[in-house]
Structure formats: C-alpha cells, structure tokens
Amino acid sequence: MDKVVLTEEKETLLIPLYGKAKESEKQVPLLVDKKAVEVVEQIDYNFKSLKIPEKTNIMMCIRAKMIDDFVRDYLADDSVESVALHLGCGLDSRYDRIENSGVDWYDVDFPEVIAIRRNFYQETDKYHLIGSSVTESEWIERIPKGKKKYIVIAEGLFMYLKENEIKELMRRIRERTGGYTLIFDAFSTFAAKKTKDHPSLKKTGARIHWGIDNPQEITSWGLGIKFLEEKYFTESEDIKKVVGFGTRFMFKIANIFTIAKKAHRQS
C-alpha cells in the first residue's frame, strides 16, 4: 500500500503496532501478535525512525496483554449478549487476539485511521469499524442499546484527551448503554508532564494532556462511576517470565518509588 501519512497523535498508533511486531519475533515474547507483523510488513513507513526505547516497548506489550486478559475474562460467558467498544483502536488487532465470536465488537478511531485499517480488517455482522474522533457525538448512535454487558477499552487514549473531553465521552456512552465497564491506562500527572522528552512522542509531535495520580478521583465526576481496581505494569508476572535480569531489576527498583510505580498503570 502507499506510504502512511499521519500527523501528531494519529502517528502514535504506529508505535504500539511496531512494538508488538518486534516483540512477536522474539524467541520468548511477552505478546504474540501475528497481525501486527503482517501489517508492518505491508506498510511503507520508516518504523525505525520512531526510536522506541526497549523499556517503552516492554511496557506497551505488558499493557496490551493485561488488557487482553481482562477483556477475555469479562467476555467469557458466551450466553450473555455483550458489546465491546475499542476506542482509539489504531491498527491494533485486539479483536483477533481475544478470539470471541459472540461479542459485538466496535473499533473506533479517526476516519483516516479507519481508512488505513480497512486495508487489513474486514467488517462482519459482529465486527464493525467506525471512522470518527471519539470526542464527536454521532458515532455513539451506531452502538446498539439494550444489551446485557458493555465493555469500553481505552488503551493509550485518555492521555491525549483533556479532562473535560474524557468526562463528556464517559457521560455520552453511559447515556447510550445504560452502564458499562471501562478499562483504561493512565499516566501520573508527573509522568504526563515528562512525556514531552520521550523520543517517540518527539518524533510524532503528539501532546499529552491528561494524567491522574489517584483513579478514585474519577468517582467524584458525578457520572455514577464506581472504582473497581488499579494495576501497575511494573508488578506484572510476565516481566519475571520473559525479560532479562537487568530489566527485572529496573522494574523492581521502580516499585520501591511511588512516583515511578504510578507513572503508567491501568484502571
């Protein structure tokens, strides 16, 4: 296909795509994503120019696997009508990795991103592509009402939005669905400020707008939110299984210091 031309935060979708492809080719990978390898091979882009640090790549793959595991468990009961909204999906292949033929799945991202995605993914009666900014309101009208379970996945998304945009997005989804389970990852406020120095974000020109130190704060937004759980990527058991001693030691040290431990985690 033609050379990919994306700007600012849209170009960041190539970072996790390339990271998963690189990880999948390791002898003992954290995550296997054959689709990522396939897509990278077909896109005409200088991926090495993204300059993804190994630590960043490990964290992205741990993040993806933790979210995959949560979503897979959430959707395990095939007898219940379920809908999954994957917001800011980029070129991620989570629908394929989850392998759940019963869920009604919606991948949502900017129109130009979905246009690229259509080169690699085909819609079915259970798998849908929606080209829209998540901050627009019209796309939500395509989500079916009255289902038993809804899960909303916001991986690598909320940090690029402003707090008022996140609140409005959550409010509109609740109005449409009646209630849902949300899983997202977030920077601490300190980490959000420091990301301007990250080499991959410097390359893309993307800006980080939002970080949060205590996810319990979200329950005060007046949207009927109930906080369930917070997990730290530095505590993942997968680190112990597949990365070298030096990297394990680095994460162990990070766990000692709250500012490092909370830098990037999921809720």
Keywords:
globular; alpha/beta; disordered C terminus; 12 helices; 40% helix; single chain; Rossmann fold; 13% strand; 267 residues; 7-stranded mixed beta sheet; 7 strands
Protein described:
It is a single chain. This protein is of the alpha/beta class. The chain has a single domain (8-266), classed as 3-Layer(aba) Sandwich (Rossmann fold), CATH 3.40.50. Helices cover 40% and strands 13% of the residues. The protein has helices at 8-11, 14-24, 34-42, 54-74, 94-98, 111-117, 163-177, 189-194, 199-204, 237-242, 245-256, 258-261; strands at residues 82-87, 104-109, 127-131, 149-154, 181-187, 231-232, 264-266. A 7-stranded mixed sheet has the order 3-2-1-4-5-7-6. Strand 2, helix 6 and strand 3 form a beta-alpha-beta unit. Helix 2 crosses helix 3 (34-42) and helix 2 (14-24) packs across helix 4.
Show unreliable segments. 245-267
Question: What's the helix count?
Answer: 12
Q: How many strands appear in the DSSP assignment?
A: 7
| Molecular shape | globular
CATH architecture: 3-Layer(aba) Sandwich
CATH class: Alpha Beta
At the fourth CATH level, what is the homologous superfamily?
Vaccinia Virus protein VP39
Structural class designation: alpha/beta
The amount of beta strand, in percent, is: 5-15%
What is the CATH third-level topology name?
Answer: Rossmann fold
Helix-strand pattern: HHHHEHEHEEHEHHEHHHE
Query: How are the strands ordered across the major sheet?
Result: 3-2-1-4-5-7-6
Domain count: the total is: 1
Q: Measured on Cα atoms, how large is the radius of gyration?
A: 18 Å
How widely separated are the two ends?
37 Å
| Rounded mean pLDDT score | 81
Largest sheet: 7 strands, mixed
Specify the helix fraction band.
25-40%
